[in-house]
Amino acid sequence: MKKVTLTRVDAVSFANFVAVFSAIVVLVAAVIMMVFGWLNFIKIDVWFPSASFNWSYAIWTIIISPLVALATGWVWGAVAAWFYNEALGKTKGIKIEISEK
Questions:
Q1: Is 14 within 8 Å of 81 (Cβ atoms)?
Q2: Residues near 7 by beta carbon (within 8 Å), at least 6 away in sequence
Q3: Cβ atoms within 10 A of the Cβ of 42, count?
Q4: What pLDDT, in 10s, does the model give residues 19-62?
Q5: Which residue from 91, 99, 88, 96 is spatially nearest to 9, judged by alpha carbons?
Q6: 23 contacts 67 by C-beta, under 8 angstroms
Q7: How many CB atoms lie within 10 A of CB 88?
Q8: What is d(CA 38, CA 99) in angstroms, rounded to the nearest whole number?
Q9: pTM for the full model?
Q10: Which residues touch 42 (CB under 8 Å, ≥6 apart)?
Q11: What is the pLDDT of residues 73-99, one digit of tens each?
Q12: How far apart are CA 38 and CA 32, in angstroms?
């Protein structure tokens, strides 16, 4: 086991990670919402034949929501990295054990 002390986090790489992770989570949630929305539309269409599927909502859910999550995730990742670096500066870092295989 090799002991390493983490004293600083690169804000840009951490922000990129949080942004991509957020976008993927929102995209998966959007696909699930679309499936249930489509199933609900099929069920409603039986009772209300005039109901229609809203394609603008579908586009918003699948395309724009992950892009918004990407942008806000990047900002929150950068802010979190800044706070993390400030905390690491005050506490002299975090000791981590790394095993090499």
A1: yes
A2: 88, 89, 92, 93
A3: 11
A4: 999 999 999 998 888 887 777 666 655 555 555 666 777 777 88
A5: 88
A6: yes
A7: 16
A8: 48
A9: 0.73
A10: none
A11: 999 999 999 999 999 888 888 888 888
A12: 10
In contact, 21 and 76? CB cutoff 8 Å = no
DSSP string for the chain: -EEEEE----HHHHHHHHHHHHHHHHHHHHHHHHHHHHHHHHHHHHH-TT----HHHHHIIIIIHHHHHHHHHHHHHHHHHHHHHHHHHHHT-EEEEE---
> Any bridge partners for residue 96, and if so which?
4
Residue type, 74: W
Per-residue tokens: 5: 């002390």
